Amino acid sequence: MKTIRQLAGQFGLSRTTLLYYDRRGLLRPDYRTSAGHRLYSPADETRLGRICQLRGAGLPLREIDAVLEPSRKLRAPLGAALNRRLTELNGEIAALRRQQQVVVSLLKQPSAARRTRIMTKERWVSLLNAIGLTEADRRLWHREFERLSPEAHQDFLESLGLPAGEIRTIRHLSAAPAAGAPHEGPSSPRRKRTARSR
Amino acid sequence: MSPITKDQFVSLLNAAGITDDQKHRLHAAFEKQHPQGHQVFLEWLGLPAETVRQIREQSRS
Q: ipTM, 2 decimals?
């Protein structure tokens, strides 16, 4: 038999915690001293060991109570409770991973994140239209961009907040050889294209 | 910061057949319609703060 102080010390819990477990019926010692102090039996000790283990798995006290119910008929299945907890944990981990990805992407491109909110594709197109650039001119510009620096081209397109698929398409079209390209405007001074692999 | 320099970007504009006059108009339209976007874009090209300030001022005149 152990006193509440001894048992609490053994499991690294506070006396208050054991009193609370007693109050909610989770761990109720059968014996008392003549002075009315609680006395915990070896069976109580075993039960507390199980309680601590399940607390360590993150099960709420309500569930622990149900799965440790002495009556077989009333006892809740432990496997089901653990599976529920596992699903819950997986959900929390997935949410944390998503947050982690957002943090990493923000750290990687702080300026791109800012630019995205300001200059959209539509705004650029309207600016370029305003100075008389045709669609063919813009296509040529993308091709030169891709040729000069694929990384910068990618960075620029990302800054417009375009979806990855659209960026891929634009870069793919920009990498096409000039020979098959449509009319590009009559007087554009342009350099000879050189084949270049990425 | 962009992976390319301002000079490289200008060479891109040249390659696409954009004239000096069009470049001036581009700055002016940029400054007028999206002043903040203009600032951030010039910073992206890696220009020093003073140069950015001068370009934006000229774009307004």
A: 0.85
Distance between CA atoms of A48 and A44, rounded to whole angstroms? Answer: 6
Residue A99 is assigned to a structural domain of this protein: no
Nearest to A187 among B8, B17, B29 (CB): B17
A158 lies within 8 A of chain B by CB: no
Measured between CB atoms, does B36 come within 8 Å of chain A?
yes
Q: How many domains does chain A have?
A: 2
The domain in which residue A131 lies consists of: 119-191
CATH of the domain at A68: 1.10.1660.10
Residues A69 and A126 in one domain: no
Q: Is this structure's pTM higher than 0.95?
A: no
The Cα–Cα gap between A70 and A74 comes to 8
User: Residue B5: its pLDDT value, please?
Assistant: 83
B13 to chain A, any CB pair closer than 8 A? The answer is: yes
Can you tell me the distance from the alpha carbon of A79 to that of A63, in angstroms, rounded to the nearest whole number? 12
